Amino acid sequence: SEKKYEIFLINTKEDLKEEDIALIKEFWLNKKIEFGILLDEEGEVAKLYNIGILPTIIFLDKNLVVKRVYPGLISKQQTLMFQYINYLLDCREKESPKKEEKEKNNCEGPCEPPPGY
């Protein structure tokens, strides 16, 4: 079956703090999600997506169009980001909805987005 999404962690030359790495690992290990890790040594990805603050988390659709941007790891943004990730992951686990429901929710399953989406 075709993958609905792929996850990549892209690092620049700047070092991640140990607590950031632990938080990322804990979240993704609990979700049992596979992801790739890429190194953006020349900063090309950062320039392409106009990233000025590290870390920045960007959600792209299958056409590489930006859907959500979360600059930095401010706790409110971090909470919203994890809500959005959980929403997307919940969508993949639900049964396939009717076409009208799928279009209404912009989702692959019968799920509701978190507040503000």
UniProtKB/TrEMBL annotation:
Residue ranges, compositional bias (Basic and acidic residues): 95-106
Region Disordered, annotated ranges: 95-117
Stated name of the protein: Alkyl hydroperoxide reductase subunit C/ Thiol specific antioxidant domain-containing protein
Organism: marine sediment metagenome
